[in-house]
User: Fold this.
Amino acid sequence: MSARVAFVVCELALVVAACGAMSDERATPATQQRDVRSTAADERCVVATLADGDSFTCADGRKVRLLLIDAPELHQKPWGLTAKRQLEGVMGPGTTVRLELDRNPTDRYGRTLAYAWVDTLMVNRWMVANGWAVVLAYENIAHLDELQRAERAAQSAKKGFWQALAFRCRPVDYRAHRCGDAPTPSSRRRR
Assistant:
């Protein structure tokens, strides 16, 4: 068996092991919850479908992109599908979520940009804290510090993809073709 094949087999084994641990981590410790009060800018949404590990569609047709996080693309196999499954475990179809909006409520594709809350759990933070997504900061930064702390803790604890080195090519770099396995222009789709 070549060294490359052995490395890939090892990475896949780590992903499977990490996914098995998800049921224990779904129970949200107090560090991942907080008492939040709704504001006038908050909206409700019933999840219809998940596009990937950081975007979904509401039953009313709105497309939503989770703020400040970046999960592996579906083309980043097996990481993208794993991230989507982790998100589905927290807020699968039929789940009612509260959308907390930030400074800019939509992106250039018309998607709603939001922090998604299931009861007192901020889904964006949960994905980062459990190692299924990384922080991607742009103009909306209301929760940037807490998400950066969650990412550092997940990386130190080797949670989720940090255990399997999946973030050696961050999703933003993958989309920009800065990694060896980046998609070709014909294989990319807007989320």
